[in-house]
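Explain my protein.
***
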Amino acid sequence: MRVESVFNCSCIAAQIGFAAISLSLHPGLWQEWKQAEIDIKAITDEIEHISNDDARCRRLRQIPGFGPLVSTATVAAIGNGAAFRRGRDFAAWVGVVPRQYSTGGKQKLFGISKRGNIYLRRMLIHGARAVLLRVKYNTGGFGQWAHRLVQRAPRNKVVVAIANKLARMAWAVLSSGQEYRHQPLQLAAA
């Protein structure tokens, strides 16, 4: 037992000493790291500025799970959404709908198709993950739908389903030119 504690102490001392030695031996790497942080901050500020200046991006940012990156990527990819007839076409183009194989009247659904804009699909999936974390606080129609889905489907399928819904919402907001309206929970008639 004593040997293990001596070994652990020497490892910690080696890590602390290594950090100090590595900073003294590689000041150029430290400067590169600091410059990379400055560059990332400048690019982030520029994306925020673009997102705040464009009316389409501002409308998209009202949708849950849409931030500056997702909104600017969506507007850059589809503009006003006129290239698609409906939201499902846009979701299929992004690749967040199930791949189908149908024959003889039988329909089989597989995983997502993974076609289309890889970057935009990844951003929508990450936005859907963020929505899923916050959905327990949402009592509106979208939150209730997600709650019911979480209870009956695996987590990753729920994330893709939310990403699909987010893509459809984004297309609707862009093609109609209207603001996103959060649907409050409608009470059942007594």
Observations:
- The CA atoms of residues 104 and 110 lie 17 Å apart.
- The radius of gyration is 23 Å.
